[in-house]
Amino acid sequence: MARILLTLLVLLNIATTTAQDSSSSPQQALENYLEMPRELAYLHLNKAVYLQGEQIGFTAYVVNKQDLTPSKTSTNLYVQIKDGDNKVVKEKLVLLENGRASHTITIDSTFSSGNYTIRAFTNWMRNFKEQNHFIDQFKVVELNDSNQTDKVANTAAVDVQFLPESGHLLNNVLNTVGVIAKGKNGMGLSQAQITITDQNDKMIANLSLNEVGIGKFAFVPELGIKYKAKVVDVNGKITETPIDFNIEPKGIILSAITSKDDLRLQVKTNAESLPQINAEEYSLMLHNLKSTSLYQVNFENKLNLDFIFNLKSLEYGINTLTLFNADNKVIAERIFFNYQNLPLASLSKPTIRATRDSLEIVMRAQKALDSARLSVSILPKNVLPYKQNHSIASYYLLQPYVKGGIERATWYFTNIDERKIQELDNLLITQGWSSYDWHAIFNNDINISYKPENLLEFQVVINNFKPRKENQKFLIHATKSRAPQVITIPGDQDSFIVENFMQYENEPLSISRLENEVLSSPPLYIRSMPIKIPGYIANTGYLNVPFKEKILTDVSGNNTRIAFSDDADREQLDEVLIETTYDKVKKRERELANHSWGRISVVDEKDILLFGTLGKYLATKPGVQVFDNLGQFNVGFRLINDGSQYSASDDENPNGVTQIPDENQSSLAAAMDGVIFYLDDMIMDSSFFAEYPLANVDYVEINNTGMGSGFLGSGGSIKVYSRFTSSFGPYETKKYPTYNFPVAFAQKKAYYIPKFSSYTDEVYKNYGVIDWMPEMQVNENGNLSFKIKKPSVDYKVVINGLSQDGTLVHLVQEFASNSSLYE
């Protein structure tokens, strides 16, 4: 626990206990409540306004809430998009690897013009009432749609809220009140002037709100006096409203002043309260996610108790001061933000190397970063909207701890100075008490109903089950992303569960019974989990941000053409099929060979009847030597007619495995060691194919050159592709039963940069994309380096990311198209 420097400015008799003292009920209750780990989610969207047909590019970051390191609790992240009517438009399950994932979502015909919300969460997050999930807004624009309107009006009805600093006002004591004013669109009433008067029109306070409609004032409230406010917006429109202050005759309040280095706290009461307060005990608890400190407070006829906390000794980020009475009732609370020791890393001024048509941008991390993973968006400088509301820093460090959305949240973490420290403190005053539910904390009210999810799971029930003596074996067939898997269960068991299972969309699950190396299709009932993408009903604090900039939608006089995929400019020709009578096997071999580095051999009915096993079949192929005996299987290659005594040819030993003279066994074994085996494009151990039934094989690819197989396959490869049909009769008959997962992992698709016919007009400046790089990394020298096509307009680079040790990276930097930074 961090050591806290506590300076008393008046003589106090305060008994102090530390976080190690578990006898304190509030302290122990909070520690128990926070003991359960939490996750936080953030999505870096490549931009915020999209055109019909465009892709949303995003990188997801999921971290441990306590230390911001990449989460290993969950691998499953749900991403959901809803329209303005709160109806789901798109949703997908995304695979997290070390707390990170990148994907795309196409703005297809299911989207119409308008505003949408995008949400990301894990199943584990659903257990907690805090806002640990991600939610934000984006806009879809359809060019030449005259029905699109953007409601931009700070001249409509005004909503002004007056929020006492520690939750309530106390009579005849100087109180601080936070003010937040919003227009009808829900955005802050920028630069508004507010005058507070009493019922006799005596001016109590006069203040100016900041750019997001927030301010504060101090006054001494009096019971029985009514107050009102006059609000004047930047357009001169006047709104008058009564203030419904709840003034308590007795009690205690907290008042704090923050700076970069310390927090000055006053615990205040009034004269009317002293007789009662002197006879009671109070506890002041300072707490955050990592530590708690509890102080026994006695007033002893003092109206004010003053403290100074050294912020360098506290945990960074949100801290909370909570005052309890002897019955553990919360009397007052104040949240504040500690800017000291923030886990933020900046990047240096870039070095830009220009060539004829491209730029190489190099930035150096200002502090050591442990395997930092970043996402980089490069956009025209004036792309809409001009400013993003959140960054990875503001979303992790601030949003989960406040109620409601935060306007311009990223501003508080860019070029931090004393003004921003004070402005953030004003924001926190308007939040009142913290986002903690103390009733739930004291009652340990955490209902863990949703487990952490690691991949998928499914249950298989054998229909018409009949017990047997021997064990049962089932083969889960391979897909392009998953190796085959054999499940063995007792003979008297009628079901089994498979956990931690990888399954992508559009890859049906196929399971066969394996008996005596022969596959059959048993009647199975399969149920997978989850069966649907869950809803998320926890408290949501996102800002419904209107796009204040003028949205350019009418481009009827503009000749700009935009392509959203590689196929967009290709003419689609009607397919003409010409059926011939030549051998279907040879036809398939030729078709498959067009996409292969090796020789293709399609297995037909005669091959299965003649050879029986894969080893005997391969032994008949030119240049192939096979060893298949006693559970061992291997293949070697050599040139035909190489003069050796054991060269293979088409007519050599057609009904068995090639026999190898003893004196040549060692040389062949060496050759066999370098051959790589695949089943349905997944690398397999060679022993898997020992006595492998040829009836399970559709075709094989024999590649003795190693070309196209990378370094591992330099010694050649054998690729076996499974047969999912009957080996006798047409290919379309007797398929193995398949099961489609209702929820499976989304396939990762490449991001396609839209192509514009003009890269200098207003359409491109408002909606264009220069590049999107979702998976970047700081190299071993601490540099981030990337290349982009040389922009023809001024541009900006937006970077978000984090390191393995929980250091956050955020940067927005603008460049001129003819930048003087070019080398």
From TrEMBL:
Keywords: Signal. It comes from the Bacteria. Residues 1-19 form the signal peptide. Gene3D superfamilies: 2.60.40.1930. The keyword Signal applies. This is Macroglobulin domain-containing protein. It comes from Leeuwenhoekiella nanhaiensis.
